[in-house]
Amino acid sequence: MAALSVSQAGLYNDARFPGRLIVSLNEHVEHFDQADPHLLASFMSDLQEASLVLRKMANVERVNIAMLGNKAPHLHAHVIPRRVEDHNYGLSPWENAAPHSKLTSADQTIFVDLLKHGFAEVRRTT
Q: Model's pTM, two decimal places?
């Protein structure tokens, strides 16, 4: 969906947090502590850009960023928009979470378009 400086951002299909992104490093690095510090600095800048895009979306009050490393052997981060109307607003996304559900096909299309526009707009203004 969006090519960033050292990573790719894509929509994560999660109806609980519409607009949730997964930002994956282009270069293969399995563990955070194995990454070159300059690469990590660029990755953090990419995450900052993704966070800004989400905060510009309607009703997004906060953005959570999580790097878990439990399953996928590749450095990536989940960038999660939080809205006051979220089932568990004020808690971590997984604490007292609603059951996972997927976005409808129509909602996927809407959010991909919104996010593409958001990344383009942020790049024009920064």
A: 0.95
Q: What is the pLDDT of residue 40?
A: 97
* Residue 55 CA from chain centroid, whole number: 11
Residue 6's closest CA among 68, 101, 75, 70? 75
Beta bridge partners of 22: 10, 78
Integer Cα distance of 23 and 11 in angstroms: 9
User: Which amino acid, residue 16?
Assistant: R
Classify the phi-psi angles of 79: left when phi > 0, otherwise alpha if psi is within -120 to 50, otherwise beta. Answer: beta
* Nearest residue to 81 via CA among 103, 101, 63: 63
**pLDDT(126) > 90:** no
